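Box 3.1. Reading complex inputs
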Amino acid sequence: METAAVAASGAGRRIMVAVDEGEESLHALNWCLANVVSPAGGDTLLLVHARRPRPVYAAMDSAGYMMTSDVLASVERHANAVSAAAVDKAKRVCADHPHVKVETMVESGDPRDVICDAADKMAPDLLVMGSHGYGFIQRAFLGSVSNHCAQNCKCPVLIVKRPKE
Amino acid sequence: METAAVAASGAGRRIMVAVDEGEESLHALNWCLANVVSPAGGDTLLLVHARRPRPVYAAMDSAGYMMTSDVLASVERHANAVSAAAVDKAKRVCADHPHVKVETMVESGDPRDVICDAADKMAPDLLVMGSHGYGFIQRAFLGSVSNHCAQNCKCPVLIVKRPKE
């Protein structure tokens, strides 16, 4: 669609955008920047990311591999790196729109709870998200996070789908 | 929130808004007019309304009342009047925003199908709706229409909730 932008005639709005490691949320973020955010400036994007919670492992996994503290630390570092990369990528996208203020929130946990809690706490004017499952539950429950947030968040919820190529 | 509006920098956008007889969809329409539609003009609102489908009655209902053609015609007139009132009310709300073009679509059927089919056919840039059940399934399935459309419509879907008073 044609580039359209929001000209805020009053104080800027706070628009929460849920980001994860996938392309779907990046598409939603780009759509939001193109179609919702005011080009005149003043709006703030609150990027919310749910980091995989620290898993609880048995001392030995199914393959008989010892889950030593070194292995656990390595897994956690990887998870944190993935999270950081997702947030950084989203921030870089926003950097192309210097009139937009950006804040980030990263919390560990189920994306459904993280996003809804963040929306409750920050009371944004709008929550924007992609439609496919977030993060580690992506393949299991298509759309479950966006459905959950659409049902449970009190603010307006905008669900943006990435067209199938 | 502060009044914000969308300034379309290119061709106007086509924004579909699902309307029914309830207050929820009116609230969504007003939010859309305040926060999405361009004040500079050029945007078109496509108001979609699902009219109750013509019911199929047995010749005699459970109370033993004969469902004569007169009665059926009366019921249908009432249903059409309710539909017309819902659409008219929405159009009057839009009339306060003369820079917005308005088109209406009324189809009989289940709101989930009517709205999704309309979105498929008209390919709007955005679909806006309230969160509570539409029309005759309102009390039965809270949120089922918006959930269905959020899952099945390809366009971005914005679900606006009416705050509890």
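In summary: The longest helix of chain A spans residues 69-95.
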